[in-house]
């Protein structure tokens, strides 16, 4: 898991290309008791609330985490845009540290009516694939439910935590959210405007236009692996059933009457 795709589908501009058939999901959790813990990571992780809003921090984390998925919606933001985004009491930014190293971050917003939105959550590339993603989402969601206590002190308690993700996100993201207790509330298919990567304000490790194809291949590989695992499990179950049937037949033979047992002996043992 590397993050939640930033929401929104603005009109296509001349410096953007469209990725057709992008699936976007709205996921939600309606009760804090539905949150399921993740396995503990192999290192100590801490989560620090950024109490002094900093456009530089949020922009840097957006770049570090988002460049490897498809976070491009904020490419065109000016410094003033970032300043306006972070200078809101309802928004909280948390920095995840692993043994003193920045490992990821998340942005949470307290919204009217008890809704709390997880705008962004993700790991930097060095920490992807090491078992930290589930714990990051768990801790992010715990803090989302604690609005009114940890931040947004006048917002009141949360009654719903929600987020958006899409088929452009990390291929393991959906499974991670489901394991933590999120369910799908809505699904849409859109043509996603993506800025031309040559106009990115920071170097991208790959062309975002290829992300959809990459993830489609990943999902196809996952499905093939699942089918292979299912077939292997079926074969193992068949073998176990055969062995159980053989043992049951043996036990039935052992418990038969003496005359019956004699009739099962090899012919040479019946010669007197």
Question: Brief overview, please?
Answer:
The chain is of the alpha+beta class and about 270 residues long. The chain has six helices and seven strands.
- The CATH superfamily of the largest domain is known as Gcn5-related N-acetyltransferase (GNAT)
What is the tally of helical segments?
A: 6
Count every beta strand, where a strand is a DSSP E run of 2 or more residues.
Answer: 7
Radius of gyration: 27 Å
Fill in the CATH topology of the largest domain: Aminopeptidase
What string, H for helix and E for strand, traces the elements in order? EEHHEEEHEHEHH
N-C termini distance: 76 Å
Structurally, the number of domains stands at 2
Q: What strand order characterises the main sheet?
A: 2-3-4-5-6-1-7
Show the helix and strand layout.
Blueprint lengths: L15 E14 L15 E5 L5 H12 L12 H8 L4 E8 L2 E10 L4 E9 L9 H13 L14 E7 L6 H8 L2 E13 L15 H44 L3 H6 L9
Parallel strand pairs: 5-6
Antiparallel strand pairs: 1-6, 1-7, 2-3, 3-4, 4-5
Helix pairs in contact: 1-2, 3-4
What do you see in this structure?
The chain is an alpha+beta fold and 272 residues long. It folds into 2 domains: 16-206, Gcn5-related N-acetyltransferase (GNAT) (Aminopeptidase), CATH 3.40.630; 207-272. It contains 6 helices and 7 strands, in the order ββααβββαβαβαα. It has a 7-stranded mixed β-sheet with strand order 2-3-4-5-6-1-7, with helices on both faces. α1 (55-66) packs across α2 (79-86) and α3 (133-145) crosses α4 (173-180). The radius of gyration is 27 Å and the shape is elongated. Mean pLDDT is 81; it is low at 1-12 and 260-272. Keywords: Transferase. It holds the Pfam family Acetyltransf_1. Residues 196-205 have a biased composition (Pro residues). Residues 193-272 are annotated as: Disordered.
């Amino acid at each position: 898991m590397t993050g939640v795709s930033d929401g929104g589908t603005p009109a296509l501009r001349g410096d953007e290309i469209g990725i057709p058939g992008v699936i976007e999901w709205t996921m939600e959790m309606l009760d804090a008791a539905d949150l399921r813990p993740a396995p503990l990571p192999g290192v100590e992780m801490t989560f620090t609330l950024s109490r002094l809003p900093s456009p530089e921090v949020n922009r840097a984390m957006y770049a570090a985490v988002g460049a490897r998925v498809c976070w491009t919606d904020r490419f065109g933001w000016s410094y003033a845009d970032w300043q306006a985004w972070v200078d809101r009491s309802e928004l909280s930014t948390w920095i995840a540290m692993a043994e003193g190293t920045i490992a990821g971050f998340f942005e949470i917003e307290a919204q009217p009516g008890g809704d709390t939105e997880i705008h962004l959550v993700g790991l930097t590339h060095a920490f992807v694939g090491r078992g930290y993603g589930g714990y990051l989402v768990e801790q992010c969601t715990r803090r989302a439910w604690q609005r009114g206590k940890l931040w947004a002190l006048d917002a009141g308690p949360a009654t719903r935590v929600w987020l958006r993700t899409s088929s452009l996100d990390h291929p393991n993201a959906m499974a991670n959210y489901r394991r933590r207790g999120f369910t799908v509330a809505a699904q849409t298919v859109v043509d996603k405007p993506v800025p031309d990567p040559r106009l990115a304000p920071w170097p991208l490790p790959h062309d975002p236009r290829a992300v959809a194809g990459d993830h489609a291949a990943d999902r196809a590989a996952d499905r093939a692996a699942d089918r292979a695992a299912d077939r292997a499990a079926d074969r193992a179950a068949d073998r176990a059933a055969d062995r159980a049937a053989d043992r049951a037949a043996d036990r039935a033979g052992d418990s038969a009457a003496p005359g019956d047992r004699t009739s099962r002996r090899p012919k040479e043992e019946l010669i007197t």
